[in-house]
Design goal:
The structure is a single chain. 41% of the residues lie in helices and 22% in strands. With 293 residues, it is of the alpha/beta class. It folds into three domains: 75 residues, Orthogonal Bundle (Arc Repressor Mutant, subunit A); 97 residues, 3-Layer(aba) Sandwich (D-Maltodextrin-Binding Protein, domain 2); 89 residues, Periplasmic binding protein-like II (D-Maltodextrin-Binding Protein, domain 2, 3-Layer(aba) Sandwich), CATH 3.40.190. The strands form four sheets. The chain has a five-stranded mixed β-sheet, sandwiched between helices. It has a three-stranded antiparallel β-sheet with strand order 10-7-11. α1 crosses α2, α4 packs across α5 and α5 crosses α9. The protein starts with a helix and ends in a 12-residue tail after the last helix.
Length: 293
Amino acid sequence: MQLDIESLRTLAAVVDTGGMTRAAEQLATSQSAVSWRIKRLEERIGRNLLVRNGRSIRASRDGEELLRYARSILDTHDEAVARLTGSQLSGTIRLGATEEVSAHLLGPVIGRFNRIHPDLTIEVQIDTSLALEERLNAGRLDLVLIQTELDDRRAGDTVLWVDEQRWISSPEWTYDEGPVPLVTFGDQGFYRARAQRVLQRAGIASSVAFSGRSTASVIAAVEAGLGVAALSGRSVIGEVIDWPRGDTVDPLQPVNQVARLAPGEASPEVAELLADLQRVLGAPGSVAIGTVG
């Protein structure tokens, strides 16, 4: 029995996106082609690889086992193809990213990129969105992964995903009345100004009780009862709850996580890294913005 690369790639896309249609969009093919590849793969193996529950699709137990091998095979295949057919990139790329996307998301992408392009060095700087944007505009960074308001995108930005925002508090310290102590990322943190604006519109006084440099430190401060915080929904972990009083104020609006290039034409090295980041981190169909409306 032989397993072809495209069938394995299709299985991974279906599971990752949760559906045949979205997988077809990601693979730039038709839904019928995706269905046919999955059917052919299941017939070759003799087992059902997917479980369908209404409109959602997930991997079966056999599908999950095959996926563990498939992802390794696909990574090795893609690295070999890129190494043998791609241009030999060299030099240094200065990449900036927020703490939320640094280690667990960037690590695999940069590791794979370095293996494909061993003569290329990536220098990563982790900081707040505002600080990174300042360095980008000053020419000290080539590419940044930052958060922006929905209406603050620039032409050329690549929206990787959209984050829903949440208010969180300790279960024991919910600050149901009176002024609200805030736990933030400091005066250059993206969430601080947003939280203060929402509370001000609701007529709720607030003050900064704690400023941390990482998501972990902010969540730890909230767990300890030092105050409430506004955070990305995907970053919320630990012994915290949705702040009950948050239902009485305006909803926190979603934000864009974007990849933004330095002014001017990007080098081939930077363009290649951006394409890799978009492929791995971006939602299906994510594209660079040509015009901002």
